[in-house]
Structure formats: C-alpha cells, structure tokens
Amino acid sequence: MVDKNFTWRTNGPIQILFQGYAQPEFLNAKFQREDEALIFTNGYLSENSRLTMLRQLKRVSVEFNRLHEEDGSLPFSQRQGTSLMPAFRPWDFSFFSRLKRDWVEGKKSGV
After folding, report:
1. What number of other Cβ atoms are within 10 A of residue 8's Cβ?
2. Spatial distance between the Cα atoms of 74 and 55, rounded to a whole number of angstroms
C-alpha cells in the first residue's frame, strides 16, 4: 500500500525506475486514439503566469485522484489503468538556444 500523495526521493530508486522504464514506455505511443492525448505547448510566460499554470496543473492532479477514489467502488472490470503525467518547468529546447541568442543579440544591436 502506497499513500496516494507520496513523493519520490530525488534520484531515489522509484524515480530512477520511472524515468528509465515507465516514462519512455508511457510516451512510446502515437496518442491518436480518442481516449488519449499528448499536449505539448510552448511559450514565454511571466513568473506570475507560470505560477498560475502550476496551480492549475496541481488542481488537475487532485481531480484525477478524486476520480480514482470515486471509481474505486466500481468492479475492476469497469476500470482501466490510466495515467496522467503533467510536466511543467521553465525550459528552452537546446536545439533552439543558439537561434534565440542570435535573435536577441540582433534585437539589441538593431539588426
């Protein structure tokens, strides 16, 4: 039995297992079925907007856990293993980092 609100130890065995095996397996899908979604959105947000978004993602996780508990009373045959993996952080794709630097430098020099 594991508490539903557990947290991983940083670089602990469960986090390492998840990142090495479960995460790649989970993402190795086309996400084209009607009951699947892979949503990746990128943009430039202020700190206030990032904190707002993070609060909303945490609310989605709370709602997922509520539904999981609610559906726990249904027969197992009426439930299916389902995973939700929100991930959110300030990040620039390294592939574009050089282009971004060139663009910002060009703006500063008036090019």
Report:
1. 13
2. 30
Contacts of 64 (CB under 8 A, 6+ apart): 84
**Domain count along the chain:** 1
0.85 exceeded by the pTM?
A: no
Choose among 24, 98, 90, 96: nearest CA to 51: 90
For residue 108, is it within any domain? Answer: no
Residue 96 maps to a domain: no
Helix (H, G, I), strand (E, B) or coil at 103: helix
Residues of the domain holding 49: 45-76
Instruction: Specify the pLDDT at position 99.
Output: 76
Q: Are 86 and 57 in contact (CB under 8 A)?
A: yes
- Within 8 A by CB and 6+ apart from 36, the residues are 29
